[in-house]
Amino acid sequence: MGGAIAVHAANKNLVPNLRSLVVIDVVEGSALEALHSMQSFLRGRPSRFKSLQYAIEYMVKSGQIRNIESARVSTQGQLIKCEDHKTNDNSSQECSRLSNAIIEEEEEEEEGGTTEVESNGSKRMKTAECSTEKSQDTAYTWRVNLESTEQYWKGWFQGLSDLFLSCSVPKLLLLAGVDRLDRALTVGQMQGKFQMLILPQCGHAVHEDQPQKVADALATFLTRHKMAESLSGFERPSPCC
């Protein structure tokens, strides 16, 4: 959604002195296709969490974020504290199920009390960090009610590829897989209208799952278009497509 907002803002010249446009894993075709299952996805996630740690565990266990360190940073911004500081029964059961599942997987992988979980090369989370201190639990719920915005979903993504290609500034598209490209972007990429970089072993939240690779890609893009100067010793990763 953030990528769609950036494209629309750039196309309407809402950002003074815009120098470049970077979109992360937002493609019109795949986004519109995913909308068919969006309500099912939203209904299937817990409405509340017993604590912030339970929410972080859910984000990692559900695959929305594959990097535990990133999840610790970004999850809290998506939540607000519940006014009644209580969770309903369904949410409590879901949180407990996820936490138990994480612990069970840890026990299967290794023995001992210092078992750790690893997610696609990200740093590990110790079992001891699971939320078990009831006295410090504070219930959290989602900050934004996405279900109520359904009438606007198609408007965010329809025509997005053509809008992206029509922006006159240098453009970079970071994707988790080449299969996400639709026809307009495929043709535009072959014509050299934008740079593209595929970062494998990522979910949709590319910048969360591989923050260092995304940072390297942005640094290379900015120095290539002379919007920044590289520091001494900076080595560019493989060039963008």
Describe the structure.
With 241 residues, the protein is of the alpha/beta class. Helices cover 41% and strands 10% of the residues. The protein contains 11 helices and 8 strands. The chain has helices spanning 2-11, 28-34, 38-44, 52-61, 68-74, 89-109, 153-157, 160-166, 183-190, 206-209, 211-224, and strands at residues 21-24, 48-49, 79-81, 116-117, 125-126, 140-142, 171-175, 195-198. The strands form 3 sheets. It has a 3-stranded parallel beta sheet with strand order 1-7-8. Strands 2-6-3 form a 3-stranded antiparallel beta sheet. A hairpin with a 7-residue loop joins strand 4 (116-117) and strand 5. The radius of gyration is 20 Å and the shape is globular.
Keywords:
3-stranded parallel sheet; 241 residues; alpha/beta; 11 helices
Secondary structure: elements and pairs:
Blueprint: H1 2-11, E1 21-24, H2 28-34, H3 38-44, E2 48-49, H4 52-61, H5 68-74, E3 79-81, H6 89-109, E4 116-117, E5 125-126, E6 140-142, H7 153-157, H8 160-166, E7 171-175, H9 183-190, E8 195-198, H10 206-209, H11 211-224
Parallel strand pairs: 1-7, 7-8
Antiparallel strand pairs: 2-6, 3-6, 4-5
